[in-house]
């Protein structure tokens, strides 16, 4: 499968590659599209795929034979082979019927592959009103470390390379399971991830961000990888989230990261924090059931 890049680029408002996610502006998007097609069905990770830190096998693949690619629109379907299965169709196109075509293809392929869910993914540029993405989208945000790490944390933040159960991280992880901390807790116990930054309230974990890790991107630049991030509800409003975020940015800068890319739920606490901290918006990634 060869893509005609001149057909895709004009209708790609966000630098986003199926199975890889958002990439930095200026990265070789055409090469990345070809790469994800090349490894389809192999279970292999590309060396710069951020998900390879969690598994030995890639759980999502491009359905190459079902790609629809012409001058009007490009539909790139993927299959997530985890759980009951999900088909996602990524829509690059501005034709009035592009979203409907993507949804139709997602439903068809879900039936063919026995997937329980069918979704359509589409994109909006950073100049679009965020109300268009409310409830269905994430904002892609870029932290550029060439501009420095930003302000220092306002409260003490601890870097934990090992679990300190006396501070109650287990209880914190259980209460924040919905934010991914139960999974992170398991990874920490296995010793397979980098350090986690925590903030304490009366000696107990009130919030955390991690794991703190970097990985080389397609061009060889170090990027700070996305983290799990949260503060217990009863401790919110004390500046702990902002302190954790700023400490994480200082960690990335100190460990030679060039940048970090994040996807934040539009209008959520992390989204508002990142906007307030001056991150650059690259646009919106929207998703709904087909």
Low-pLDDT runs = none
Approximate helicity band: 10-25%
Q: Output the number of helix runs.
A: 7
How many distinct beta strands? 16
Mean pLDDT: 94
Radius of gyration from CA coordinates: 20 Å
Tell me briefly what this model is.
Helices cover 24% and strands 29% of the residues.
Any overview of this molecule?
With about 290 residues, this protein is α+β, with helices and mostly antiparallel strands. About 25% of the residues lie in helices and about 30% in strands. It has helices at about 5-10, 30-40, 100-115, 170-175, 180-190, 240-255, 270-275, and strands at about 15, 20, 60, 70, 75-80, 85-95, 115-125, 135-145, 160, 195-200, 205-210, 215, 220-225, 230, 260-265, 280-290. The strands form three sheets. Strands 3, 4, 5, 6, 7, 8, 12, 13, 15 and 16 form a ten-stranded mixed β-sheet that branches. Strands 9-10-11-14 form a four-stranded antiparallel β-sheet, covered by helices on one side. A hairpin with a 5-residue loop joins β5 and β6. α4 (about 170-175) runs antiparallel to α5. The longest helix has 16 residues, at about 100-115. The mean pLDDT is about 95.
Key traits:
7 helices; 29% strand; single chain; 290 residues; 10-stranded mixed β-sheet; 4-stranded antiparallel β-sheet; globular; alpha+beta
């Amino acid at each position: 499968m060869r893509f005609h890049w001149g057909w895709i680029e004009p209708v790609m408002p966000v630098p986003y590659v199926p199975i890889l996610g958002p990439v930095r502006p200026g990265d070789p998007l055409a090469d990345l599209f070809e790469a994800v097609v090349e490894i389809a069905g192999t279970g292999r990770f590309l060396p710069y795929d951020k998900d390879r830190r969690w598994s030995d096998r890639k759980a999502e693949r491009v359905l190459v034979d079902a790609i629809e690619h012409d001058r009007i629109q490009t539909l790139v379907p993927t299959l997530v082979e985890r759980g009951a299965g999900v088909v996602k169709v990524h829509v690059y196109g501005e034709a009035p019927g592009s979203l409907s075509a993507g949804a139709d293809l997602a439903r068809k392929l879900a039936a063919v592959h026995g997937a329980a869910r069918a979704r359509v993914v589409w994109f909006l540029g950073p100049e679009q009103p965020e109300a268009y993405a409310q409830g269905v989208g994430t904002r892609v945000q870029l932290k550029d470390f060439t501009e420095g790490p930003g302000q220092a944390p306002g409260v003490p933040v601890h870097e934990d390379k090992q679990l300190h159960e006396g501070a109650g991280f287990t209880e914190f992880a259980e209460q924040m399971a919905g934010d991914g901390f139960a999974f992170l807790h398991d990874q920490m116990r296995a010793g397979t991830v980098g350090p986690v930054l925590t903030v304490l309230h009366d000696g107990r974990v009130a919030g955390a961000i991690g794991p703190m890790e970097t990985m080389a991107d397609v061009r060889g630049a170090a990027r700070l990888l996305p983290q799990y991030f949260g503060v217990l509800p009863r401790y919110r409003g004390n500046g702990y989230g902002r302190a954790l975020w700023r400490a994480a940015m200082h960690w990335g800068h100190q460990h030679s990261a060039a940048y970090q890319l994040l996807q934040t739920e539009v209008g959520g606490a992390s989204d508002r924090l990142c906007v307030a901290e001056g991150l650059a918006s690259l646009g919106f990634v929207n998703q709904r059931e087909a």
